[in-house]
Amino acid sequence: MTSLPSTDRTLSKWGVLTICAVAQFMVVLDVTIVNVALPKMRDALGLSITGQQWVVNAYTLTFAGFLMLGGRAADLFGRRRVFMLGLSLFTGASLIGGLAQGGAWLIAARAAQGIGGAILAPTSLTILTSTFTDMNERRRAIGVWSATAASGSAAGVLAGGILTDLLNWRWVLFVNVPIGLVMLVAAQRVLPESRAQEPRARLDIEGAFTITAGLALFVYGIVGTDTHSWASTQTVMALLGGAAFLAAAVFIEARVAGQPLVPLAIFRRRSLCAANGIGATIGAALFGMYFFVSLYLQELVGFTPLRTGLAILPAGTMTLLGALAAPRLVAAIGPRRQLILGPTLAAVGLLWMSTLTYGANYWAHMFGPLALFGLGIGLSFVPMTLTATAGIPPKEAGLASGLINTTRQMGGAVGLAVLATLAAGTTRHDHSTARSAQAAVTFGYDRAFLIAGLLLLAGAGLATLIRPTPQARVSADSVPLVESVATEQTDAIPATSRSI
To answer: pLDDT per residue over 26-76, tens digit each?
Structure first.
């Protein structure tokens, strides 16, 4: 075989990086872009508050449930082949979602998008790490990939407002279609085919399915309490069904699967368990903040989708800035202290926001809390990933990092269900005291912000359980490389914007 000249090889490598970065940008953009369009989707399709939650959670549950399976499939069956499969599914589901004529149609399309995203996110990173074998090149490539993905999270909020205002809500989904088609052609021409050098093994599909189904039923039972009591047959059956599926998942992972998605022995590590607990609280707070702020600004303050996107932008921007500053700070104070600092700052922002009143001024009562929340979240992700992977053998680094991202997404889905249920119950009770409907809804949102803030403080408390170790303090120059290993088989973006 004739080898390519060095210039051509370099161009080919950066073509690979461009495709992988754009793919990740799409996955992140699609989460935040939908959030701003939720009220318009509700009006067009007759969605209830529960339906709006499922537009978000359908994507998140399938994304988190199949995330590690997607990375594993790429290693076994060919990374380019699996990447193109995920991109085709994501693009097709976006088209079908944009054409939705009912809530169930849209939610099903979002679930399919989540599976496509679960394939794209880890596969794009795996392709990068297998293409850029030189450590210096890999560090730069991962930096470009992460920065592009992070910018997508902030851009999605603004793009959702622009598209919804100038066109309509369907274009927040349609926008993926032309990008996806161009990417499919480019991927076929540019991406190399590769796979892990190991015997082909059977995928743990049963484990992925039971984990996802169990959590979906659990979330369904919680959000259903908006219209059914906790003691109702529907709620009890849903919760029991979810528990049964999750019990089956534990059995499969422990006894059945030859190569389980989540070997249970990994939970013997104290730092990993603490980091995953922190990730769950951060996910719950993120989902809640983006969901309720978007509804508050559009339904109660009267902002347009575009103005809402601009209003929420400080949170995404500060998350990006915090994520960029995090590697240097973690080198100075260590992951443990930074995992106390970051969630605490974000909690202060949410507790501040829990004092909102109906008709409150945005600049006086929301801009500061949003910026503070975003900064705290941005500071949290590097130390959380480092803690989750500290002392993990290299062969399990992808498992540990995939687990922390899965936990964060699952925590977000369950957390949003709980927060929305509490907000709805508070609103109904407060409205019964003769307070105006708008004031009652605001008070319900305040209660959600309060609980989310307390959850973040609990997460900061979990950080005190992490044992400081010599390996925990890393040099600033080594952090990007550590991150590249820690984020294998995952989409290491600041979760702020991915959450909703």
So the answer is: 887 887 788 889 999 999 999 887 788 889 888 888 887 787 777 777 777
Query: Residues 79-115: pLDDT tens digits?
Result: 888 899 999 999 999 999 999 999 999 999 999 999 9
Give residue 359's region: left, alpha or beta (phi > 0; psi -120 to 50).
Answer: left
CA atoms of 452 and 444, how far apart (whole Å): 13
Among 240, 267, 239, residue whose Cα is nearest residue 253: 267
- Would you list the domain boundaries of the chain? 10-192, 205-260, 263-500
CATH number for 10-192 (one of 3.30.499.10, 1.20.1250.20, 3.40.50.300, 3.40.190.10): it is 1.20.1250.20
- The answer to whether 284 touches 276, Cβ cutoff 8 Å, is no
**Given the structure tokens 């169990």, which residue do they identify?**
214
Q: Report how far residue 210's alpha carbon sits from residue 249's, in angstroms, rounded to the nearest whole number.
A: 5
Q: Are 217 and 238 in contact (CB under 8 A)?
A: yes
**Contacts of residue 196, Cβ cutoff 8 Å, sequence gap at least 6:** 75, 76
Single out the residue of 200, 205, 212, 199 nearest to residue 252, CA to CA: 205
* Fold agreement between 10-192 and 263-500: yes
CATH, range 263-500: 1.20.1250.20
**Residue 192 DSSP label:** P
Task: Report the candidate in 76, 69, 82 with the shortest Cα–Cα distance to residue 187.
Answer: 82
Q: How far apart are CA 116 and CA 129, in angstroms?
A: 20
